[in-house]
Amino acid sequence: MDELTPEEMIRKKRQAQQEHQKKREEQIRQEKQDKLNSNPGGVGRRIKPLPPNELERILKTGTEEEKSKAFFENGRPRNWEELSYDKTKINKDKKTILVFPGDASVEPFDANFYAKFVESLVGRAEENGFDLYSFYHDKFEKNKRRGTFSDKHLEKIYKSFVEPLIKDENGKFFKEKEIAKNFGNLRFVTHCFGDLEVDKLLVKTSEVLAEKFDEEKTQQLLSNVFVVGYAPWIPFHKFGTHVQFHSKQDKNLMFPDKKLEALKDFEGFAKIFEEPLKNSITVISDTFADFSKSLDEHQIALLLKEGGVIDRLQFADAQKLSKQKQEELKSQKKNYANNVLPRTADYSRQQAISDMFASVLAYSIVTDNLSLEDVKMILQAQINMENKIWPEQKRMKKETEKKRQKDLDVNVNKNSIEEELKNHTALNPKQFFASANAYKKSKPKNFGDKD
Asked: What percentage of the chain has pLDDT greater than the value 90?
């Protein structure tokens, strides 16, 4: 046997190292998957709450057990129904919203919150003719609030919520036109890492579609899937049609250079950035939160509404808009937003962004042939209105800040630090823990999400 040359020995050594590295990476990946599978996430939906008179009766005269069941039942949030993937199948003939939350959502509580968030924008699913499902991630560690969907979990989501839109019960592909129609009923709401999970799901779907259709047709079919995302993890997507909301003040994500460039020398409320692949638009701004340093602009709770925007943003208005031709709208210069979303200069930025998010989502629910041009028109009308009152908003904000600083200066001068310390009545550590323990004992065992 011929001896190896030094170059061949080096090449062989590198090859062995690469193979070892690959095996190690696969081992780590498998260990991660095993951990995720041992702390599984899930899916559920909101159910109709108790009638107000029944809830009032329980609160006034009900037993402790009745009260506990009314608010928290079987370890799950009340008004929340945990679902089994094996028994759950998407209704392809109905608009369906799938909510993919951030990676800190690893409990039913979290999924329930995200479902309530969507309800706060567009009302209850059963009352407005759509289905709503919310997911929570598999955990990396049992006692840690971080996770993702394992490969196994993602496969379950695909089987229950995507495959029925592509194939019949015998595994046979539907015709192209029917798949396009079915995808036209699918909506995603994402936050942060949930955006990446949807991307994985769409890539997986594209691989299945590639068994039947060419690349161009696959991309065209998936363009019917509509995704509305807040603080997206991925700036650009190959599949689907996306509308994203991205604040420069979001410190949790890398703000893409192209979006930074778009905001350079920009003076106003927000602007629309069109993605290079032409399948996404992003509402971008320096801030979504009135320049308040106390607000975390990564949190989707920033957009949460108490009573919901649905009363002001009537579905009837959205339906009326969807039936009109784009050319007719342009010629008549209809301002959709002006008709349903009145503004004043003291209207907060987060309320305005919330209304935009809600209007896009509501419009997508009632529209069959959704286009980014329609969505862009809806958003631009609202942005134009915000930009008109932007100088007055800035003036009011400055005055408010000056007054706040003046009041603060008066307070500091009035009470010296020594006097403040003298009058300070905070509990000492011993008193604090005694109070905390007393509260803990008085707290109901099944204390949790009351809605």
From this structure: 25
